[in-house]
Design a protein that fits this description.
It is a single chain. This protein is an alpha/beta fold and about 325 residues long. It has two domains: about 5-125 and about 320-325, Glycogen Phosphorylase B (Rossmann fold), CATH 3.40.50.2000; about 130-315, Rossmann fold (3-Layer(aba) Sandwich). It has helices at about 25-40, 50-65, 75-80, 85-95, 105-115, 135-150, 170-180, 195-200, 220-225, 245-250, 265, 280-290, 295-315, 315-325; strands at about 5-10, 10-15, 45-50, 70-75, 100-105, 120-125, 155-165, 185-195, 210-215, 230-235, 255-260, 275. The strands form three sheets. The protein has a six-stranded parallel sheet, with helices on both faces. Strands 3-4-5-6 form a four-stranded parallel sheet. A two-stranded antiparallel ribbon has the order 1-2. β1 (about 5-10) and β2 form a beta hairpin.
């Protein structure tokens, strides 16, 4: 197998390719880790994710001489994999063997503690580098182009970003917008992948607003697309701490979001976004209506508050400080 090693940031990134024979990659990774440990011993092992990554982390930690290990829970690795028979065993093994467990939301911390009361379980939030999302001239041009294509004059642009799969509940939110009589007040920008059912809804002007659909874009193109939006919608049934939430806020885009996962922990309702109870259509429509009721001045004030909050409360320095304390 063609294993690639890149030395950077004072350490080594080891890239082990996937293989049709599923046992080859983890064993190849173990051989590399064992050999490097013999030359320069590791002191901790961290699995970034509770299923496969966590399982490999606690396994390697044991084989390296009972090293301390941490498993960091992101979202689907617990919300989904815990209930999938083929993956749940990996999650349970990772949690049982880990020295400590981190999770990106406070509610996940409490749910994991309820299952493993003797374990150290702590909040380990994501972060965003606000400077990375400052608009460049090219981003501003992209913003203006997209808003022009959408015909945004007199309407608010709402963005939907990422892999818009079932848990994201886009049809549910569109139904709430329609029921509230808000279709003509918004333009919709989607960036990422859309399932066929959602695409069919977006094709029907009777049940969807005017919209522009773009495929996944390189990260360096996203700032202009976020900036084209007045709001970003995240109506998920369950969540971790979405990168889309923090990235959009770093661009000054106010979220309209369910209270799933960390979104209720990040967003201050009415100050840095609008929250609604997950799976409540009436609440989703009401939150969207409150957002659309903002005049330009109030929206600009919220935009500034959104950028300020994410830049201070969810900075990389803060994430690093929390992770170092965990280790």
């Amino acid at each position: 197998m063609d294993v690639r090693v890149e030395e950077r940031d004072g350490g080594s990134d080891i890239f082990v390719p996937h293989d049709p024979e599923s046992s080859l990659a983890p064993n190849q990774a173990w051989l590399f880790v064992r050999e490097r440990h013999a030359r320069r011993p590791y002191t901790n092992v961290v699995g970034f994710g509770a299923s496969e990554a966590g399982y490999h982390a606690v396994t390697f930690a044991a084989w390296l001489g009972a090293l301390p290990s941490a498993v960091l829970v992101r979202g689907n690795d617990f919300d989904r994999d815990w209930f999938v028979p083929q993956r749940a065993g990996l999650v349970r093994e990772a949690f049982e063997r880990a020295t400590a467990i981190g999770a990106v939301t406070a509610e996940k911390v409490e749910r994991i503690r309820a299952l493993y009361p003797s374990k150290r379980v702590v909040w380990t939030p994501n972060s965003v580098d606000a400077a990375r999302w400052e608009l460049l001239p090219g981003d501003a041009a992209k913003r203006d182009e997209v808003r022009g294509l959408l015909g945004a004059n007199g309407a608010r642009v709402v963005g939907l970003f990422g892999e818009l799969k079932a848990k994201k509940r886009i049809p549910f939110w569109l139904e709430a917008v329609r029921d509230r009589g808000l279709l003509d007040k918004i333009r919709l920008l989607t960036v990422g992948t859309i399932d066929p059912a959602t695409a069919a809804i977006l094709d029907d002007p009777a049940v969807a607003p005017r919209n522009l659909r773009l495929p996944f874009c390189p990260p360096d193109e996203l700032a202009g697309l976020y900036a084209a939006c007045d709001f970003v919608a995240l109506p998920s049934m369950f969540e971790g701490m979405p990168n889309v939430l923090l990235e959009a806020m770093a661009c000054g885009v106010a979220p309209i979001a369910s209270d799933a996962g960390a979104m209720a922990e990040v967003i201050r309702d009415g100050e840095t976004g609008f929250l609604f109870t997950a799976e409540s259509r009436d609440a989703a429509g009401e939150a969207t209506a409150r957002a659309l009721a903002l005049d330009d001045g109030a929206l600009a004030t919220m935009s500034a508050a959104v950028k300020r909050q994410v830049g201070t409360e969810f900075s990389p320095d803060r994430e690093i400080e929390i992770l170092l304390e965990l280790l």
